[in-house]
């Protein structure tokens, strides 16, 4: 697509992802169907540009990831990795292969830290980096016949930038099991082990699950969602006392801010707060 606008928001021009903004929901579709939406360096850069563009935009309430052509994402583009490996490199200098790999880690971090609610619609191939992207979605909805996998170890290298997010998502025991077996399973197993939160058997079911999730998200204040995600992300990265101190400060700022005032008055007046009204 070329670009998309909403008020003062301008999204970047993109060629490997498609963007559609609908009442505060930004639908981001990975658009390399002939490659099962494998993530090229260009696609990674485009996604990062979009996430950066909406970071401070509270009018964008939700970011929905999906893949074109019936597949979510078949992982990283092997051609890009091969190009990095064949480039001139002197031991002791920065390794272009490591830099390429780490760039995907930055993408994962930026999606993980997005203040908006992040939803992933998962179907078809969900491999490697696509698997990782599913693990940083706040809500993941999968087709029952989706095909998850960690093919990296079978190719001779680790799922380096995915591993940490997978451990955090489902715990060390399950993550290690998947790592040493190649992690092949379907959407129903993904639900059972906690990779996804809901499963549907067809497109109509996916649409119903997505609409239900969007309805629930729209009831919540955008700033409160952002603050809550930030607080939760700190758990395990700092002393619990620091987490609680930061949470108290963010709570006070919210209570004294416009969302807190609006939410309180809406409750007293027995009406919907303005953010829920605007979503109708």
Percent in helix: 40-55%
**What low-confidence regions span 5 or more consecutive residues with pLDDT below 50?**
none
CATH architecture label of the largest domain: Alpha-Beta Complex
Please give the radius of gyration in angstroms: 20 Å
Question: Helix-strand pattern, N to C?
Answer: EEEEHEHHEEHEEHHHEHEHHHHH
Report the strand count: 11
Number of domains: 2
Q: Looking across the biggest beta sheet, what order are the strands in?
A: 3-4-5-6-8-11
CATH topology of the largest domain: 2-enoyl-CoA Hydratase, Chain A, domain 1
What's the CATH class of the largest domain, please? Alpha Beta
- What's the overall geometry? globular
Termini separation (Å)? 27 Å
Share of residues in strands: 15-25%
CATH homologous superfamily classification of the largest domain: 2-enoyl-CoA Hydratase, Chain A, domain 1
Classify the secondary structure makeup into a structural class.
alpha/beta
The major beta sheet can be summarized as: 6 strands, mixed
- Mean pLDDT rating: 92
Helical element count? 13
Index terms:
280 residues, alpha/beta, 2-enoyl-CoA Hydratase, Chain A, domain 1, Lyase 2-enoyl-coa Hydratase, Chain  A, domain 2, six-stranded mixed sheet, three-stranded mixed sheet, 13 helices, 51% helix
How is this structure best described in words?
This protein has 280 residues and is of the alpha/beta class. It has two domains: 5-218, 2-enoyl-CoA Hydratase, Chain A, domain 1, CATH 3.90.226.10; 222-278, Lyase 2-enoyl-coa Hydratase, Chain  A, domain 2 (Orthogonal Bundle), CATH 1.10.12.10. Helices cover 51% and strands 16% of the residues. Strands 3-4-5-6-8-11 form a six-stranded mixed β-sheet, with helices on both faces. β3 (17-22) and β4 form a beta hairpin. The radius of gyration is 20 Å and the shape is globular. It starts with a strand and ends with a helix. The model has no long low-confidence stretch (mean pLDDT 92).
